[in-house]
Amino acid sequence: MSKNTVSSARFRKVDVDEYDENKFVDEEDGGDGQAGPDEGEVDSCLRQYPCIRNMTAALQAALKNPPINTKSQAVKALAAGGVGSIVRVLTARKTV
Q: A single GO CC term, please (predicted)?
């Protein structure tokens, strides 16, 4: 067991007994209560940038058909739906 020494008690400067669970008041973040972006705003953004829609479709296509039953790691990585194709889609999106 460890001994109680003065040097080990130096870091204990917070009195936990002063914090009462019943006195706790949660701070409000001051938000206006909006949960997310407006649907009209999202639709207008999608119409503004048609290449993003193509990237999303490409990502969905890559995730739709994964090569699960193959044993070759190269086939899994480079096939449509493999990790390689998903990375290619995401890096292409980053450069646009």
A: Arp2/3 protein complex
| Residue of 53, 45, 58, 51 whose CA lies nearest to 90 | 58
DSSP assignment of 21-88, as one string? GGG--PPP----S--S--HHHHHHHHHH-HHHHHHHHHHHHHHHS---S---HHHHHHSTTSHHHHHH
Selected residue with higher pLDDT from 53 and 74: 74
Residue ranges per structural domain of the chain: 38-96
Instruction: Kindly tell me if the per-residue pLDDT of 22 is higher than 70.
Output: yes
pTM for the predicted model, two decimal places: 0.28
Token pair of 3, please? 């001994």
